[in-house]
Input
Amino acid sequence: MGDDSTASKTTYNDNAWRQLNLPHDWSIEGEFKKDAPTTGQGGYLPTGIGWYRKQFTLPASVRGKQIRIQFDGVYMNSEVWINGHYLGKRPNGYISFVYDLTPYLTKGNNILAVRVDNSEQPNSRWYSGSGIYRHVWLNIANPVHIAQWGTYITTPKVDSAAATVSIKTKIENSGKNISYATLVSTIVDEKGNEVAKNEVQFTVNTNEINEIAQSVQVNSPAIWSVNSPHLYTLKSTIISGKKIIDEFQSTFGIRTLEYSNINGFSLNGKRIKMNGVCLHHDGGLVGAAVPIKIWETRLKLLKDMGCNAIRTSHNPVAPEFLDLCDKMGFLVMDEAFDVWETKKVTNDYHLYFDEWWQRDVIGQIHRDRNHPSIVLWSAGNEIPDQTKDKGVELLKNILTVYHAEDPTRPVTTANDDIAADSGQTKLAFMEGEDIVGYNYANRWHERRELYYSLDHNDHPNWKMIGTESGPIRNVPAYSLGMDKSMVKANYTSGMIDAEQLWEFVAVHDYVIGDFMWTGIDYLGEARWPGKSSSSGQISTINLPKDGYYFYQSQWTDKPVLHLFPHWNWQGHEGQIIPVVAYTNCDTVELFVNGKSYGIKVQEFPHQGHSGAWNKYAKPYVGVTTADLHLSWDVAYEPGTIKAVGRKNGKQVIVDEIQTTGKAVALRVSADTSAISADSKDVALVHVDIIDAQGNIVPDADNLVSFTISGTGKILGVDNGDPRDDTAFKQTSRKAFNGRVYTVVQADGKPGGINLTVQAEGLKPASVTINVQQSNTAVMAFEDLK
Output
């Protein structure tokens, strides 16, 4: 940490420096401070300037080849040197970039140095992290090779009988001689079976790039969809004589996209609503350096909620995140920027936009365009430049680049109703988009419930999507001291807006879908003592909140019935508490200690009821047929509340909440019994505070301490409370809602990890995790031979 201009020199002595593995985020290692320069937008964590150095020796077998270093993301203002030679600077903290090391490498020791400057604050409206927080790769190739991000795969014609796969491959010759060779493009399915092949001979001059176009047919293709995300692999091989001189593999999917001003969005010819969420890039206690296991866990939770679409707010994400979206069947709106030329905070990307936007956009497209999950590009979020004529011209220029580099996907921007001073300028901006994006559609007109309908009436040719919308609120907004009418009004007011918006989106086919803010709680955009936003339907410790089940009840077909709040209100006996249920059952009957409080009818058909959408649609007005929750007013008495859900008169699901006893013990559970010793794999560990019957005590806040032994380390400890400003690196934390959470990582050696949790007055608990020898196919520098 700190700045030293001599750290780029090969003679610099770095023996006293800390050794670490990448990815790495130094901000998350710090303490939360109210006066931090990042402010609440950046999560009150430290930033600054940091240096990284890597020493390596290349074996003789790779000499004479082209060697490049690829950074998947460095936040921010990174500068790179190799053996004292300056390679360049990239201000954008989210973009991937590559430098050619070849001319400057030596036979002996090589020194790679990276300076990261995240000192000018504030520069983000959310937590950014600091440092080399994504993966770094050493790419080694022969002089004639497939260029960086040099394959572009599209599927222009698809039906059940056959699919046409169009392949464009850029081949680069960094050698001294003209090359005559053959490009073999082979497509294999998920089982490794070859399904198509094409060969073409080519010539590429020295220091040139030649793009080769091929077309192949895949018979009886396995179509990529949200429910069946089948993937294919393109194996690109360059052969000179009988020798293979380069190989590269690209994953892709066979699918078709269609957007309509009448029917919204169709995937493979079938109309589908985008049930979307917006996501920021941090992983909670690990900060911006997120192990892939955490994203895998979170995406599984979102999938189970019924989410099928993700907006990468407000920047390109890590490549492995998009790989997961491909494999798991998510539709992705891939967003580029939060700002263009006009600042939102003092030191944000607006300082670099004019010089860098085109390179950054092209880099984003070339890296990401083979992902079948990406169905829509977003050029920006709530762009203030649309208040000026220049904003409209900029939009045209940016869309020209997107259309040139990837004509297969449309482009939108996320527009806020307050982003324009001039109605005509705003109109021109929106008319220039392929898809018109709306942030918080309920703010756009004096009558909030009209949402998209007035614009649809005035501009019937517009294709419309909700790029950002308010969520179901998860924090009960009532006090037990209120009278009955105030309780009900305050407790349910946070639900109505989101429920009515979803009602409108569900029944109006022309609305492509909606992206709710947000799917998961994230660091930053907070006010002290809060350190994180609580707008997510999943907490920072990967646990669903109450609102999660609202979306699950509307977005899935499986029976859903979720009761809340908890039933630990000792001292408030006899006071009225609204008991709420999210469900997709026809009816729900509530029982309190065996006494029925009546049957409630869920009137509005959720999305799983096929064919029901248009039945309720009205031309240009909002649809407010019913609240999408059920509620009973109950005088509190300790015991058990039970809900019975029925469909077609038949009981299909039951939910039950009990008044718990006092806390007596800790219970610990890990998501896996074994992890890899690759210094990257992690285990996610949850700790519950329980009563004698094994029920989680929802109001327990005991201080829980963690002790680890063996071949692993604790990455951090969290409890999901946005107002807890305890540093993540501390190994003890008070429980929140009876829960605590930690992430454990192997230290590179096989063996085992034992994790013990303790709290005063409670029975301790422990869990053992085996650490197995890594079988990774990716070589570290030290393994290169």
Q: What stands out?
A: The chain has a mean pLDDT of 91. The chain is about 15% helix and 35% strand. Helices lie at 292-305, 319-328, 353-368, 389-405, 423-431, 453-458, 484-507, 546-555.
